[in-house]
Design a protein that fits this description.
The structure holds 2 protein chains of 2 kinds.
Chain A (H helix, E strand, L loop, with lengths): L9 H22 L1 H28 L8 H22 L5 H6 L2 H6 L5 H7 L7 H17 L6 H28 L7 H15 L8 H10 L7 H8 L15 H24 L4
Helix pairs in contact in A: 2-3, 2-7, 3-7, 3-8, 3-11, 8-9, 8-11, 8-12
Chain B lengths: L9 E10 L7 E11 L4 E5 L6 H8 L7 E6 L8 H5 L2 E5 L11 H11 L4 H14 L15 H13 L5 E5 L7 H18 L2 E5 L3 H7 L2 E6 L2 E6 L1 H8 L3 E7 L12 E7 L4 E6 L6 H11 L2 E7 L3 H12 L1
Parallel strand pairs in B: 3-7, 3-8, 5-6, 6-7
Antiparallel strand pairs in B: 1-2, 1-4, 8-9, 10-12, 10-13, 11-12
Helix pairs in contact in B: 3-4
Classes of the chains: A mainly alpha, B alpha/beta.
Amino acid sequence: MADLRTEAGPRAGAWAAYRSILRSRVRAQAGYRVSFATDIAATVLTGLAELTEVYVIFHNTPRLGGLNFDAALLVFALANLTFAAADLFLGHCDRLPTYVREGRIDVFYLRPLSLLGQLMTSEVSLRRLGRITVAVVVLAIALVRNEVAPTPVTMGMLALAIVAGTVLLGGLFVAVAGLQFWLVDGREFANAFTYGGAYAAQQSSLVFPDPVRIFFTFVVPAAFTAYLPTLVILGLPGGDFADPALAWWLPVAAAWVWLVALVTWRFGVRHYQGAGG
Amino acid sequence: MTEGSSDTMVEVTRLTRVFRRRGADDLTAVDGMTFRIEPGEAVGYIGANGAGKSTTIKMLTGILAPTSGSARTCGLDPMRERRRLARRIGVVFGQRSQLWWDLPLRESFDILASIHGLSSAVAARRIARLTDLLDMGPTLTQPVRSLSLGQRMRAEVAAALVHEPSLVILDEPTIGLDVVSKARLREFLIDQRRDHGTTLLLTTHDMGDIERLCDRVLVVDHGRLAFDGTLAGLAGTVGVGRVLVVDLDGPTEPLHGIPATQWQGSEGGGIRQRLAFDPADTTASAVLAAVAERATVRDLSIEEPDIEEVVRRIYTTSG
């Protein structure tokens, strides 16, 4: 039988397939201009509302958890930017039960691509661009107000925080997708990790009691996405279990989250198929 | 390795699937099933709701793992070689769509061609041919969510065939379709089989699908195979006759003795009468002509046996 497939190897073919799926998702959302615009506006407002919360807190207290308002702005910006970016690419993964109910997971099985690859590329939420915009503006303001000098350390940490922080939080969405193969009504539980982690990421770790701080540093390592990088960028001292030097371990923290994510996904799929596990 | 040639399309050996249920007894959905399907066969897979049809199909396609026994599809292990298998089978689930509802239909076909790694020239040729055969030209630019059910089902079938699979599995492909849409889809599948030697496995609640598409029937009951044979064999076992229902001008004597029919009863003192016949022995028009000689027919309808009834009869004869 003649091989009618493209010349490129199977891996290159898979990337082309994922790209064409993702492009179609972008086209579909950009196609409905009015609803796209209102969605963007809504996420801008959400971002601004959360910013107001930070402002209100620091209107009442000059320092919280070792941060002043300007430092808190940097934490807010990094936490929001990474979470919104992760949400844009992978936020739909926590709706796995809907995929199961609508039979979309079964359809994934019928295609010659990885199941997780298909889940991850099945949607992009372009409306998160609104929130990303808010975060980027706040980030610029925070860098100016904190008079951050553009040294290799500050810029390197900033780039690492944005890239690896997004990867880390994206891993959280995938981890909770795997969990929801077991949990019948797992959405709330899943949100505790994703939105809970995102909320924790917005705070100074020092506002938490030790056990909670340890949890959000070494178990669900949300502190790595914004607070620890901020300590490095601003040269702040941190505290117990919140040493600035930890920030450079961000790639390891992200790898840890993805390891857990891939394991829960694997067990989740095995559970779905009923092959033990 | 199980024995048998690698040409065998489906080879199921003592296939069993048990669902463990919280707070209830285990449910054995498929119970020690064994059958084979050879290339080019068209097999109807029928049974009552919950008899184990969908579970079997999920095991054949790698969605579900067998509890015990084995399934091989296109010579592959569906669990371990799911992706290779996906290139060789096309599956249509009547109830779940593989199209992108918010995009024009054409884009779903393009994405599927890309997923299957088809070059754009090959993809364009196949999509054009399927579009032509299934008469879908005008719908290509419409978003999938705006298609009628008949249009969508044809699109689903085309989507499952873009990569020219050698085995096509259809789960309730004609459910909810009007008569014209059904006929068109059946004709397409018949042509597809004749021109490409495509093997068909379909579940259905429609006896017409079985009669027009299948040369072999598997009847499943409580996860076990209750019948495996030809349609003629099935008819011989349980009868798949038609019933002609006539409304007559006025009360009439029972219409006994019409050639090749059995009188089944009457209502309203003989105003409405029912005559069973087998299309192998006579035709509807011959029966009608014989009735018309005795009384004026005001109205008529023909009842096809529904699959539930056939299945019920199989269950009682095999039980």
